[in-house]
Amino acid sequence: MESRINGTQIISLPKIEDRRGNLSVIENDIVPFEIKRVYYLYDVPSGAERGGHAHKNLKQFLVALSGSFDVVLKDGEKEEIVTLNKPYEGLLINPGIWRELQNFSSGSVCLVVASEVFIEEDYIRDFDEFIHFKDITDK
């Protein structure tokens, strides 16, 4: 399913149902990039926000392993809010998209699969700088 924000997409994960519990898998044929880093957010306090940045090159795939949270996406012109609440669906975010994670439910866990290792220079942490970056790269 395509998002209204170009450069983002909801991707369904394989869901293997079993009476003993369900299983989903993330492999390189599921996400359209080589996986180089995996981390997760948990114990996010009520009202706290995460993200608040964009990437120049890194691609991310976010999954709500438990609970739910909203992902606010901005491309410099449009804004969209995507709620993640299914452990068998993830949100692909390509470079050049601003993201903010908010409204974490109690006990939620956000899995992040990334195309690159952590490189601070890849982050755009100021929204005005992001808009300038978009103006330059979109021309």
UniProtKB/TrEMBL annotation:
Which stretches make up the Sugar 3,4-ketoisomerase QdtA cupin domain?
7-134
From what superkingdom does this record's organism come? Bacteria
**Gene3D superfamilies hit by this protein:** Jelly Rolls (2.60.120.10)
The UniProt entry, under InterPro entries, shows: QdtA_cupin_dom, RmlC-like_jellyroll, RmlC_Cupin_sf
What Pfam families does the record tag this protein with?
A: FdtA
Q: What name is this protein filed under? A: FdtA/QdtA family cupin domain-containing protein
The protein's organism comes out as Flavobacterium ginsengiterrae
